[in-house]
UniProtKB/TrEMBL annotation:
<keyword id="KW-1133">Transmembrane helix</keyword>
<protein>
    <submittedName>
        <fullName>Uncharacterized protein</fullName>
    </submittedName>
</protein>
<keyword id="KW-0472">Membrane</keyword>
<keyword id="KW-0812">Transmembrane</keyword>
<feature type="compositionally biased region" description="Acidic residues">
    <location>
        <begin position="69"/>
        <end position="109"/>
    </location>
</feature>
<feature type="transmembrane region" description="Helical">
    <location>
        <begin position="7"/>
        <end position="37"/>
    </location>
</feature>
<feature type="region of interest" description="Disordered">
    <location>
        <begin position="48"/>
        <end position="130"/>
    </location>
</feature>
Amino acid sequence: MIHRAVVVVAVVVVVVVVVVVVVVVVVVVVAVIAVAITETVAVPVPVLDSTNRRPIKHRPEGTIVTAWGEEEEEEEEEEDDDDDEKEEEKEEEEEEEEEEEEEEEEEEENANRERSELTASFNAIACGTG
């Protein structure tokens, strides 16, 4: 009888250990998923000024704010780079618009051609020649 009791206790201990391990694994997996979700979906919180009343205004890189609140540009070369980048972006946008217009015109021409072919075939069928 003692032998059976030892076996029963051993089985109970093994079952308890397995259950604890499974619970720990599930908790870790849920925690990892929760952290991943909160990091990817996190909403940026505005940084408040020293009075904690209004958000700090986001300034472009290289802007110097003096003690009395005036903004100064660090270097004028950056403005030139920004202007060049803006011009390049405008040119790229114009090229994309032209390409889109050309594609639309080609689509319209193809649609008109298909319509005229279908009309001709319907007319031929209606006249009995097709």
